[in-house]
Amino acid sequence: MHTLSGKKLDTSKGNISGTILLLAIPMVLEMLMESLFSVVDIFFVGKIGVNAVATIGLTESIMSVLYSVSIGLSMAATALIARRVGEKKIDKAAEVAFQAIVITVLFAVVSGFLGYIYAEDLLRMMGATDAIVEEGLVYTQIIFTGNASVVLLFVINGIFRGAGNASTAMHSLWIANFINIVLNPILIFGLGSIPAFGLKGAAYATLIGRSLGVLYQLIMLRFGKTIFQISRKAFVLKKKIVLKFLKLAAGSMSQFVIEAISWIFLIKLIAGYGSTVVAGYTIAYRILMFSILPGWGMANVAATMVGQNLGAGKPDRAETSVWKTVKFNALLLGIFSLIFLLVPHFFVHLFTTDAEVLLSGTEALRYFSIGFIFFACGMVLSQSLNGAGDTKTPAFINILVFIVIQIPLAWVLSKGIGLGAPGVYCAITISYLIHALFSFIAFKRGKWKVIKI
């Protein structure tokens, strides 16, 4: 019960494997809860029609840039706070948390306003048809309006993880998901005097759920008894901390923005094969993310352990922690890989009964599952470098893999050779194999052990 209680865990002491598991349980559950948002939306929206599902897929592809920035900010917060906690400088960790939240809110307000104004242009840029724009524009606008809840949920949970309070991060997503699950069918299809909002209802449910999750986070940060509190004396912007945070965040954000740009290009290729293929790809991708995000939970364990152990002056313990986490994650995602290879049809059928969408989604999921082991290794090694404060190396690797290699390879396989959508799926799997290899080489060099942040 220690893992779920909200108590802070000092990862620089005790048995390494046991510590990994104590952190992993709430972090994996947290990531499962995060991925549950998209799965729930697709489950209910899939009953509306193909255009509704395609709208969510295209909107998520646009939002992937926002998610990339959110994850980047979150990773910077985790790295800095884990290092300060490892150094036993709790007051300094609280100061970092305050700076991170202020920067996050500023970004969310600006990006949300721009996203709302240019929602239609963004959808059309992604290849949306007139029918999709007519049906889904309001959904996209609502999602952009509420992006502050998305970014804050990511970043504040990054703060909790850095402090070793992974269970508190998990609790916030329990709250957000419970509300989203309850409200989705009610707001989409109506109940009693509550009208049926259709696709808009899914956006409202997600917005309300995430916002209440953020409210819980803020209450715990300010008044929680089991974590470090952001007291009033921390409510001061400090230029030195802001610049350090932004420097780390820039490298972290660029990693995921680069990957998001690649994903946007890929879905534009997919969109050329019709709404049915886009819908199938969207369902398969949601299932993929539901499976991969627990792996990200394991990767976050490695980042926290690296940060705290470097802060405590224990680089060898940090390295051992990473290799053990790689093994655990390979086992976790290997199980998902086997299941999806054997029965992909079963999982896609949970979201659609359309025969063509079912066929397309099953094909995509089978291709994706081949790369799960590569995902597992690459994400842990990359996050470990980020946890050490080396955000530049993973960014360089991502440029090389996802821009220089993946985009041209996807075009060649799909258009040049004529494999169609499966060519894009193959390019994705091959790219993650290369990413894992490059991350392994970078981590083995060991330069991350001497970085000061």
Describe the overall structure.
This protein has 453 residues and is mainly alpha-helical. It has one domain (20-450). Helix content is 81%, strand content 0%. The protein contains 16 helices and no strands. The chain has helices at 16-45, 50-86, 90-117, 119-125, 130-145, 147-162, 166-189, 199-223, 239-271, 275-311, 315-342, 344-349, 355-370, 372-387, 392-416, 421-445. The radius of gyration is 21 Å and the shape is globular. The two termini are 33 Å apart. The relative contact order is 0.14. The mean pLDDT is 87.
Keywords, please?
453 residues; 16 helices; 0% strand; 81% helix; globular; mainly alpha; single chain
Structural class designation:
mainly alpha
Please give the count of helices.
16
Broad shape: globular
Q: Say how many strands there are.
A: 0
What is the strand content? under 5%
Question: What low-confidence regions span 5 or more consecutive residues with pLDDT below 50?
Answer: none
Helix/strand order? HHHHHHHHHHHHHHHH
Distance between the termini: 33 Å
Quaternary: single chain
Radius of gyration: 21 Å
For the largest beta-sheet, the strand count, sense and barrel status come to: none
Number of structurally distinct domains: 1
- Mean pLDDT, as a whole number? 87
- In helices, the fraction of residues equals over 70%
